[in-house]
């Protein structure tokens, strides 16, 4: 059970930590599948104003697909053109799930699209190596805000192939990381200064703003665990340490249910006890060694060495019963 709890927490932390160190090409964030689909909300379009990009609400978001079916693959390609999927993520997903007959995908399904649409997708895939190389050549300052580094990467991609191609290839990734950067900035700079009941609303507004036409997919991809991570970080901003435990338990209960929230609380308490034991033992050991060395050098005095080892054994039994 403890291992399962650590996995739940670990997935959330990895998801958030991954975006802090931007790789040269793509930045793949681990996906946490949602336990249930959320209802659709008002979307804010954030895709290029090109005729090739249809309205973000013109095609439904389908969370799971049978990629062996050509009709579903073609619909997914149209979602790419509508600014609701990214071609690279989709291509990897299709090739992994479909296997036979999809090794060279999407080439085989492009004939079902309009020539102009098929040409855009082919050009995007052809430009990908040069785009990724341009990002690899960037020299980034890790001390700069994530939003600034992301803006430089997007600018480098656009300079090679243009905004349409960049959006086709990396739209989801860029939207995901733009929200992460904005949410982190909000939590560190603004959350503590606004009423607690308004913080979740502010995070939701940031999701709609930065996810744009990818909102349904990316919000569902986060799942309750990642939604909890951001909500909890915002709720705890500026909160005294002694009040955080109750807030954490309440929010975990709301997002994850009573049972898992209690188990996580017990795990944290257990970890805190282990940490306190380790710190107490280390302090007592340092004090003991200082006392012994005032009387001589245990490395050269067998009597002192024996006393030191005996008393260290007593300390271990005291702090780690």
Task: Please tell me about this protein's structure.
With 321 residues, the protein is mostly helical. The chain folds into two domains: 41-214 and 230-240, no CATH class; 258-319. The chain is built from eleven helices and no strands. The protein has helices spanning 2-17, 70-81, 87-98, 115-136, 146-161, 163-189, 196-211, 215-236, 241-256, 258-295, 302-319. Helix 4 packs across helix 6 (163-189), helix 5 packs antiparallel against helix 6 and helix 8 packs antiparallel against helix 9. The longest helix is centred in the C-terminal third of the chain and has 38 residues, at 258-295. The two termini are 23 Å apart.
Structural class estimated from helices and strands: mainly alpha
Taking pLDDT < 50 over at least 5 consecutive residues as the criterion, the unreliable ranges are 1-62
Q: For the residues shown, what is the average pLDDT? A: 80
Strand content: under 5%
User: Structurally, how many domains make up the residues?
Assistant: 2
Gyration radius from CA atoms, angstroms = 26 Å
End-to-end span in angstroms?
23 Å
């Amino acid at each position: 059970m403890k291992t399962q709890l650590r996995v739940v927490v670990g997935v959330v932390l990895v998801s958030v930590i991954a975006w802090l160190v931007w790789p040269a090409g793509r930045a793949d964030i681990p996906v946490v599948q949602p336990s249930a689909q959320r209802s659709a909300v008002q979307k804010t379009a954030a895709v290029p104003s090109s005729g090739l990009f249809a309205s973000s609400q013109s095609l439904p978001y389908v969370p799971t697909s049978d990629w062996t079916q050509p009709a579903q693959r073609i619909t997914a390609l149209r979602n790419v053109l509508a600014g609701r999927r990214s071609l690279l993520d989709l291509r990897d997903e299709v090739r992994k799930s479909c296997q036979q007959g999809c090794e060279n995908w999407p080439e085989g399904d492009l004939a079902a699209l309009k020539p102009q649409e098929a040409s855009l997708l082919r050009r995007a895939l052809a430009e990908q190596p040069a785009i990724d190389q341009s990002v690899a050549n960037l020299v980034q300052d890790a001390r700069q805000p994530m939003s600034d580094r992301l803006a430089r990467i997007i600018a480098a991609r656009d300079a090679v192939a243009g905004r349409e191609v960049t959006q086709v290839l990396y739209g989801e990734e860029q939207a995901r990381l733009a929200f992460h950067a904005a949410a982190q900035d909000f939590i560190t700079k603004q959350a503590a200064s606004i009423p607690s009941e308004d913080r979740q609303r502010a995070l939701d507004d940031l999701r709609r703003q930065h996810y744009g036409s990818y909102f349904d997919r990316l919000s569902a991809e986060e799942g309750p665990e990642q939604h909890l991570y951001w909500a909890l970080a915002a709720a705890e901003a500026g909160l005294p340490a002694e009040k955080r435990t109750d807030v954490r338990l309440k929010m975990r209960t709301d997002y994850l249910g009573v049972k898992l929230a209690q188990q996580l609380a017990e795990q944290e308490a257990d970890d805190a006890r282990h940490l306190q034991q380790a710190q107490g033992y280390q302090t007592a050991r340092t004090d003991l060694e200082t006392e012994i060395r005032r009387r001589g050098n245990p490395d050269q005095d067998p009597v002192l060495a024996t006393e030191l080892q005996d008393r260290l054994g007593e300390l271990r039994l005291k702090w780690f019963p």
